[in-house]
Every structure is written in C-alpha cells, then in structure tokens.
Design brief:
- The chain is α+β, with helices and mostly antiparallel strands.
- 33% of the residues lie in helices and 19% in strands.
- It has a five-stranded mixed beta barrel.
- Strand 4 and strand 5 form a beta hairpin.
- Helix 2 runs antiparallel to helix 5.
- The radius of gyration is 44 Å and the shape is rod-shaped.
- The two termini are 62 Å apart.
Amino acid sequence: MYATQRADPFSKNVTQYMVRAQRRLAHNPADSPDFLSIVDHPPTLVKSGRRHGYGLIVLAIIPTTAFALGTWQVFRLGWKTELIARFEDRLVREPLPLPPQIDPAAIKDFDYRRVYTCGHLRHDQEMLIGPRMHDGKNGYLVITPLEREGSGTTVLVNRGWIPKKFRRQADREEGLPRGQVVVEGLLREPWKKNMFTPDNKPEQGEYYFPDVQQMAMVTGSQPVWIEETMEPNLLKAYDREAKGIPIGRAAEVNLRNNHTQYIFTWYALSAATTIMLWMVVRKPPSDMARRVRQNKEW
C-alpha cells in the first residue's frame, strides 16, 4: 500500500513565480527583432498648442485702418482750416449791394459774403422752419421773401429765430415791419438735407429744413438765401424774444472744426492696437515649444 505524498508548498510557489516570469518575458517588446528603441529615434522638438487664427488678421487690420483714417483727417484739417480762413476774410470786407439778378452758380464764390439790399417783406408768404432750438428753447426760423424793385428780383431772407408761442402772426405784430426795409446779412449757399430730416410739406405749410429751390418755387423768388445778421447783444436778444421779433444770427463763421480731435483719436487707436498686435505675436501660448519624445512605436 502506497503512502500518500503531500505537495510541498514552497515548491509550488516557486513554480508559479517562474511561470509568471516566463509569461512576462514572452511579451517583452524588446525580444522582437522588429523592435526600435529610443536610440533609433532620438527625441525631437515639436510645437504644440493653438496657433493664431483669424483674430490676428483682424487685429492687424485695425491699426492700419486707424492710421489711414488719421492721415485722412490731417488732410481734412488743412482743408477745413483754409475754408474757414477764406470765409473769415470775406466777413471782414465791406458789405456789397445785392444785384437785382443773381446767378445761383456764382453764389458758392460769395458764400459768407456780407451783402445788403432793400425792399418790402412779403409777410403773406412767410414760411416757418422748425422745430429749431435756441438757447434750449423750441421755436422756428422765420423765412420771408423780400420783394425788390423790378421783375424777378425777390430773394429769400432768413430773418432769425422766434419762440414757438409766436407761431401765429397775430401774436407778434411788432415782428412784422411794414413798408420799405433794409436787410443786411450773409449770402449763403443752399443747405443740404440729411437723411434723418423729413421732407417738407409746402402744401400744408410745414417746413423742416430750408430747401431753397423748393421755397423759391413756392414764393416765385430767386433761389437766393440771405441770413439776416445783428450785433450780439444779450439784452436786445431778450427783448426781441419777448416781443416775437426774430433774433438774427451773428456775422461769424459757425463751421465746426473737430478734425484735430479726430486725428488724435485715430492715431492713438492705431498706436494702441499696434502695441497689442506686437504683444500677441511676440508672446507664444503657454504650451508652445514643448519638448516631446516621439517614437513610432511609443
């Protein structure tokens, strides 16, 4: 009778360890003849991370465009300064008598020229342009044809501003001079209507901007626009306002000249965006130029 042999625990553990080691060695990539190590493929420097996109193109366009606009404003400043100087030179000259017949094409050469003429104001053809603001108050510009001696010599006179409460002529008798009057003012070019101003309605007596050609046709006048002037006098202006007498404009050039501010604005924007562009181009993303070990098998 054979005796039962008991298995040795130590021998069993050693056997299992050797089996597992053989299995690991059997799956080792280095044992394969096709294996390529890191020596065969040394590490290379690669770029990773987000590249600059369309935003960089837009950022590059902004300083160029702003610089071009600033340069354009430099030329505009020179043109406006020369224009104002030419108008101011005309203002200091003695007023000219207004001829009976005026060529509308020649008015631009006499814009802001002081003139005087006489005749009868046609209050029955008066036109009110409004609303117009004066010192924060609402009102109208009073436009009255001036009928002079001779046929076809009538011209349009912008007599000045009146408060809204004096819209009716019956409320301002003192502002309706009768008989022969002398008008001194500035000869002006016809105004240009902007896109936000509504169209005039002459059939209803509503005027929102001085359309000289239209007003001349309605009243049978020449398309000639004269802006009556008066000496700047605060007390006199208050007295006229209280009585409904039109307040004429001062004999001065009232053209705005803000091109110096525009030049500073555009050039400052160009400089600021140029610095921003330089900072974006010079400063790479945080994960750029990362050293990475590349290998076909890793």
